[in-house]
Automatic annotation (TrEMBL):
Zn(2+) binds at residues 19, 22, 35, 39. GO terms for molecular function: metal ion binding; methyltransferase activity. Residues 17-52 form the 23S rRNA (guanine(745)-N(1))-methyltransferase N-terminal domain. S-adenosyl-L-methionine binds at residues 77, 110-111, 202. The keyword Methyltransferase applies. Residues 104-191 form the Methyltransferase domain. GO terms for biological process: methylation. InterPro entries: Methyltransf_25, RlmA_N, rRNA_m1G-MeTrfase_A_prd, SAM-dependent_MTases_sf. This is Methyltransferase domain-containing protein. Gene3D superfamilies: Vaccinia Virus protein VP39. The keyword Transferase applies. Pfam families: Methyltransf_25, Zn_ribbon_RlmA.
Amino acid sequence: MSINRVSRFFAEHAALFACPICSQPMRLQHRSLLCTHGHCFDIAKQGYVNLMLHTPKTKYDKPLFAARRIISRAGYFEPLLAHICTGIVNTSSQGSGEEPLRLLDAGCGEGSHLTFIQQKLRDQAWRDVLGIGIDLSREGVRMAAKEAAPAIWCAADLARCPIAEERIDYILNILSPSNYAEFRRMLKDEGMVIKAIPESDHLRQLRSLFFKRSKRRDYSNEHSVELFSKHFELAAAERVRYNVLVEPANMEHLIRMTPLSWRASDRLLREAIDLNGRPTEITFDFSVLFGKKR
């Protein structure tokens, strides 16, 4: 979108925002979000707003997000995302004349997951859907705003989300860190958190290669499920497991986008990328947790 269209989009939905410094309501003035205490955050020409209070150190950089976008466009996450869409359809009411269904992707990266889910819901003749993507990485959010579907894209800290209280219908938290206190604050009373976490077989072929002699070869998400259940009523926990035949051209992108590779030596990385130079079957394995306010 042009910067003028982006500004109008932010103006239309400015009531969603709360200042990350003082929590006061915000409004759009010219091309900036301004709170009642005068804290000001400019909308970048790429179409996102940076509401960070400091620049964080993170390994989630532009090459990682570029790799994730390639993997997403290859369809490797589609079974997971389609399952999440089904969960939204089955738990939300549909009707004309209602305000948009507000989806907040907490840890949106470069926006591909939120874009897919928005489009999938619209294709099913769902009610109007407003996507809001928040990520700690400005690189990821900038990429989302430039190339992903129209949505509200924000660089922001999940510990101080710039969203007013009880404004969100669904919080999506897909393979990303959580801040459950903030999730509870932003979620409507009848809203739902949908969290996707790795299951024991997720990317097991890569895990076996990178962690041959390490306990990290075996993975359990038991602690993540317990923590989620302490903060939200667990309405459902569903497993989504499937195998994907990864072409050699995409193997490097898959490896570069996962933190599993961060501590691997150059030799192991090259060995994983090559993997005999032919398509390799890789397992994708997730638990999808659906939680409500208690």
